[in-house]
Amino acid sequence: MARTAWVDPDECISCGLCIENLPEVFRFADSGKAECYNSAGASEADIQNEAMDPCPVSCIHWKD
Ligand code: SF4
């Protein structure tokens, strides 16, 4: 089964980069912080390369 990505809301600075790169996976929650609403919206490699790695505060993690 594919892994699920998770945004730590305490660390997210709401820069929007992950949402811009992968809008089918990430969106802004009502809190104003990013959330992963659909881990199946992109491959694990794309989530890693286009959201996790470039996130300026490295707050997107895999949930086991
Ligand atoms: S890239 Fe990181 S800091 Fe920016 S909105 Fe996404 S989770 Fe938050």
UniProtKB/TrEMBL annotation:
Protein name: Ferredoxin
4Fe-4S ferredoxin-type domain location: 3-31
Function of the protein: Ferredoxins are iron-sulfur proteins that transfer electrons in a wide variety of metabolic reactions.
Gene3D superfamilies per record: 3.30.70.20
InterPro entries assigned: 3Fe4S_ferredoxin, 4Fe4S_Fe-S-bd, ET_Ferredoxin
Keywords: 4Fe-4S, Electron transport, Iron, Iron-sulfur, Metal-binding, Transport
A GO molecular-function annotation: electron transfer activity
Cofactor: [4Fe-4S] cluster
